[in-house]
Amino acid sequence: MNPHNAIHLASLKMDDSASVVSVVSTSAKFPPGEPNNEWTIEELVHWSLSQHHAMAIEKTEEYTESLRDYCERECDDIMALHSMAIEMAQNNENKMAPSAAASNTDVALKSPPKSNNNHIEVLITSGPHSGSKIHLRPKPGAPCFIGRSKGKKFIKNGISLHKDQEVSTTHGKILVEGWTMGLADGSNAANKMGHAPKFYFVDVGSTNGTTMNGDLVEPESKVLLMEGLELKVGGSMLKFILND
């Protein structure tokens, strides 16, 4: 299903639920205020039903907002990947020259020995998961997520801080930029040509926020990851190790 259609559908469901509560509220026959000994059983039942419906609407609104945020983030990642694919295709067309020299250059660029700077390591130095080390390989359009969730994208190529109650379900993500087709293996040749990828951390709007050197990181802003940089996510301190 198209993400935007999913958002619209969720909104419609929330509106329908709101209509139900509206009907219950207007047709309910019970005095204002809290129940007391003078209320009848019928009035108490109507009041109880209205409370449960109001609670259901509140939960529905929270779920809908969460779904909307998730879909918007996924759409942004998809569009970024699409734009990058178009740009790379155009660059490849421009680089394709009918000369043997250009052909030899392409071969040389594609086959240098590989190093490890296409991934980063994260060492957890404090918090419930202290001592853990995680290897991450973010790709264009496929960031690595950090949060309390135990979902697949947090376990397989992300960081699941499920024991840290101060961390949001989806707390932040790690992006990569400067990735170039044919040089994404992090080769030394890529570094010399200035194509080495750069990694960024983004707080996606977590409840308790993220701090760097005691300062709060602004949500949705990119923090360039440097060797040894430390970020506090919830109750966990993360130290980033770049592989040059």
Calculate the terminal CA-CA distance, rounded to whole Å: 40 Å
> How big is the Rg?
25 Å
The biggest sheet amounts to: 6 strands, antiparallel
Output mean pLDDT.
77
Considering DSSP H and I runs of 4 or more, what fraction of the residues is helical? 40-55%
Secondary-structure-derived class: alpha+beta
Q: What string, H for helix and E for strand, traces the elements in order?
A: HHHEEEHEEHEEEEEE
Might you state the CATH topology name of the largest domain? Tumour Suppressor Smad4
CATH architecture of the largest domain: Sandwich
Q: What is the tally of beta strands?
A: 11
Q: Which CATH class of the largest domain?
A: Mainly Beta
Domain FHA: 144-217
Protein name: FHA domain-containing protein
Organism: Cyclotella cryptica
Outline the fold blueprint.
Layout: H1 3-27, H2 41-95, H3 100-110, E1 120-126, E2 133-136, E3 144-147, H4 152-155, E4 159-160, E5 172-177, H5 188-192, E6 198-203, E7 210-212, E8 215-216, E9 222-224, E10 230-233, E11 236-242
Helix pairs in contact: 1-2
InterPro entries: FHA_dom, SMAD_FHA_dom_sf
Pfam family, one: FHA
Protein name: FHA domain-containing protein
How would you sum up this structure, described in words?
- Residues 144-217 form the FHA domain.
- This is FHA domain-containing protein.
- By secondary structure, the protein is an alpha+beta fold.
- It folds into 2 domains: 3-84; 114-242, Tumour Suppressor Smad4, CATH 2.60.200.20.
- Helices cover 41% and strands 20% of the residues.
- The chain has 5 helices and 11 strands; from the N terminus they run αααβββαββαββββββ.
- The protein has helices at residues 3-27, 41-95, 100-110, 152-155, 188-192, and strands at 120-126, 133-136, 144-147, 159-160, 172-177, 198-203, 210-212, 215-216, 222-224, 230-233, 236-242.
- The protein has a 6-stranded antiparallel β-sheet, with no helix packed on it.
- Helix 1 runs antiparallel to helix 2 (41-95).
- The longest helix is centred in the first third of the chain and has 55 residues, at 41-95.
- It starts with a helix and ends with a strand.
- Residues 6-15, 17-26, 107-116 and 181-192 have low confidence and may be disordered.
